Amino acid sequence: MPSRRLSARDRARRELGQNFLVDRAAARRLVRLLDLTGPTPVVELGAGAGAVTRELAGHPVTAVEIDPHWADVLRVRCPWARVVRGDVLRFAFPRTEHVVVGNLPYSQTTAIVRRLLAEPSWTRAALLVQFDVARKRADGGSMLNAQWAPWYEFRLCGRVRAQAFRPVPSVDGGLLAVRRRARPLVPWSELGAYQAMVEAVFTGRGRGLRAVLRNLRRPLPSGVPADALPKDLTPEDWARLHR
Ligand SMILES: C[S@@+](CC[C@H](N)C(=O)[O-])C[C@H]1O[C@@H](n2cnc3c(N)ncnc32)[C@H](O)[C@@H]1O
Predict the structure, then answer these.
(1) Rg of the chain over all Cα atoms, to the nearest angstrom
(2) Which of 66, 72, 83, 100 is the best mutation target for the ligand 1 pocket, counting ligand atoms within 8 Å of the beta carbon and taking the most?
(3) What average pLDDT is seen over the chain?
(4) Are strands 98-103 and 42-45 parallel, antiparallel or unpaired?
(5) Record-annotated residues binding S-adenosyl-L-methionine (predicted)?
(6) Annotation: CATH topology of 8-180
(7) CB-ligand 1 contact for 88 (6 Å cutoff)
(8) Under a CB-based contact definition with an 8 Å cutoff, are residues 53 and 81 in contact?
(9) How far is CA 71 from CA 2, 78, 135, 149, in A?
């Protein structure tokens, strides 16, 4: 029955964060952040109705979409793309070099970003997320930022007004560029130990960084003021603290 089908679609729209881009210029701005020059493989996260996918015509694209309805639509609209019907959180990312793009479902941004950062083979990502989330990532200072700072640089690249999406969300979007460092500040093989250290510092007992580090029996990195807080440390400070 049409009315039941409509309500199922409405439910999917809400649960899966289906705020589709209707502003072509915004989709182009997102794709331009990838600096695509040659035939670099692209993985698109949450491809939906293909607003971003169609701006990638001519590139080898793998478009991941969880909703079977939109995955089927995509196969017709963007026949050059390899469409994978599945959950980004379980997707097997390529083991060879690639780039990543996605207008992410707002409700799953953190989970998807965490999943993405744990993948070793992509070099650049262009993400459209809530503006405040993009700004927070780019400003640094959070535990999540510190845990990934030796490997990635985050940059806020602009705002996308809420009216660029349908349905119109309650907040604007933000363009976030993530670049893997050519020379990581900490070896990838030490990721687990490094992240445990960052968590211990952020959640450790003591007032100020010096006291927290004293409790953890670690020295304050040279050049860091005694009254600094964990959020004040630069990626280089964190790397020295790890060493
Ligand atoms: C904000 S929409 C973006 C759609 C399209 N890329 C665009 O820009 O118009 C997010 C898309 O991600 C899909 N999605 C939500 N959760 C997902 C997940 N866990 N894995 C894969 N796709 C997901 C939704 O169905 C939706 O199509």
Answers:
(1) 20
(2) 66
(3) 93
(4) parallel
(5) 19, 21, 46, 65, 87, 103
(6) Rossmann fold (3.40.50)
(7) yes
(8) yes
(9) 20, 10, 31, 34
